[in-house]
């Protein structure tokens, strides 16, 4: 029998600790003063806690079955606080069945404000050994009860004691705690033997019906040996291990579009006393549960959260993975899949490196020396990325001195759904008198040439490289746009490199690319870019930064919240900052935070012109976070706090009302994550 022993465990401990039951608290079952018929289709309805004499009543009077819940009514949400912390004695199977049957009216295995149940369930108390019950009320507490039972089951428990404080915990504290103790762990991936099994079964990484493929760089022999060994040991998965060529050209990447797979990442490599390879792939964090790859700019924001929660090693691993990608694949990739080999993402590496460096343990001379060497390797990779990716054609525009998102991939991107581009292909197919599928086959095999379509796919890939996929701000023109966000990020690179060289390398750095570079050189680069940003992107009359079309030679008219990235990067003058903040508050501040762009810029929406997720009325965390830091840096602290409050309230409201959900984006105008 499970009994309450007045345990001294932290009420807010991680599930793995909280639900680790000592042997003295385990038993075959919870004592219940009633007989439960296993054939009942509906659960027992549990009564309120009653006076002690009710315990002498028959089980039939204490626990009664019912075919409806019409006699269960909603109650107020305020209780008199007990002088003793209340605990509940939970038989997970019984209580979960009762909770879902009564409260989950739409059958989605969640308790939300959209469910029409009475929002009150009577649960046995631990102090009474299960004889008495107490009402758990409201969407928030009931959904927390459902979540806690799931967490307990994941820990191998079927009968537990749950503290009321765990169910009515302040939602801000609960969300922060759940991120720290549960969510991060659920997002960790690793390309070791165990992780590879999950990765290879991911349809995003393997073509249906084909063998999983792991691609490794031509000069990473340890990776080739390691994954060849895994393929041998996991022969049932029929894994293929393929060495990439030394020169990874766009034409080569296109040639493997029908054989796409996962790309290897960094590892700790050593050899034991017998000369045998010891290969330990580095764990990393993914942006959501359905992903198995490390993504580009998502990793920066993940790192901010990981560092806040003391998980510096994971953040450091992700920097090391990026350095590996730059060394072996030529750039930080959209993600480590083969069809991303020609595509990068918004560059945040220098700031990511510095924030990780500041968090590394540095209490001994050895630690300080190791950290300095890591900083050197990491900044060497960042300089390589800057010079060979963002300052080279086709991404760099010589005339303006600004950079564009302009990946080098050719043909139709293979990662989309098979019908994704059918509406685009249709007029070309009709013109040729063939079906859409026939046209796609002919186009993919270079049997037909269509320059207009080639250009369309260049811009489509550029939108994906920008991280803002998709938006009418960028559609069909992205590769021609020197965007505010990209050039602010690169200005930040230039300043970060200059400052780091001065602070840690005596003003000069021996770059592995073949020449020394100095802090003074990078300050010149930063000033040149700042002047170009002022000349081409800043609009004094409108008090806003705009993207610049390098092909047409004119500013875009789309009003984007990315204008505030200039504050994060520090490239705005105080006068520009004042105007920018005044205009941005008027144009982008809405009830739920900062909206991606204005409704006017987005334009009219219809069936033929559907909404895009990075346009009005949507808001995303990266835009909010960058704005907060930028505003704070320029002294607009009250505005930053107001923006932060709006966004955090939006997140918390969804968390409370929708069973602990944390969506990737919100309709911040209408304060909801529920939209088509």
Automatic annotation (TrEMBL):
Keywords: Glycosidase, Hydrolase. It comes from the Eukaryota. This is Alpha,alpha-trehalase nth1. Its EC number is 3.2.1.28.
